[in-house]
């Protein structure tokens, strides 16, 4: 049975319009993107096959084209559409902070921005956001990239970036591709070193965030040293 033959109140697209995207399952959301299935297989069935084959919706961003093409019903056009959708999502999530008039005045806003920029990366990356005294964004940059489980971060480079931006406050974040956001001893030492280095020139470290595909850890919200 095709989706068009389903009762209207059960069709993913109609349910999305009536109740919101958050009410749909991963397979139903993906089915709306796919639009069509295969003979004898609905778009939702094809979406379930894809989620099983690729290990979850959260892994679609890193599926190489050669693996994508191995799934019957998928082609280069769909792959290009997916990459465009993912990039649009990243830009939408980060767009609010690209306007220098925006303030990073909530943990939720900082988390969304960090996830958009580094949360899905397959290697560790270290993001720095320079802020003025009113928490308005001056500039942001991924200063360091590493391997799947570590990256070398030099406090002097963070300090130089903040001073070049004439910042008053700094937010930092890095990702854990393993999707385990528990801070390591190295993360603790880095946070202490960064905080001490910034204080020497009267700059404040607002928070250090660790993000994964489905987890987050905030040093400040957890009251972890030095916060």
Automatic annotation (TrEMBL):
Domain MPN positions: 103-225
Domain of life: Bacteria
UniProt cross-references to InterPro entries, sorted A to Z: MPN, RadC_JAB, RuvA_2-like, UPF0758, UPF0758_N
CDD domains: MPN_DUF2466 (cd08071)
Keywords: Hydrolase, Metal-binding, Metalloprotease, Protease, Zinc
SUPFAM superfamilies assigned: RuvA domain 2-like (SSF47781)
NCBIfam families (alphabetical): PRK00024.1, radc
Record family assignment: Belongs to the UPF0758 family.
Protein's recorded name: DNA repair protein RadC
Source organism per UniProt: Limnobacter humi
Lineage: Bacteria, Pseudomonadati, Pseudomonadota, Betaproteobacteria, Burkholderiales
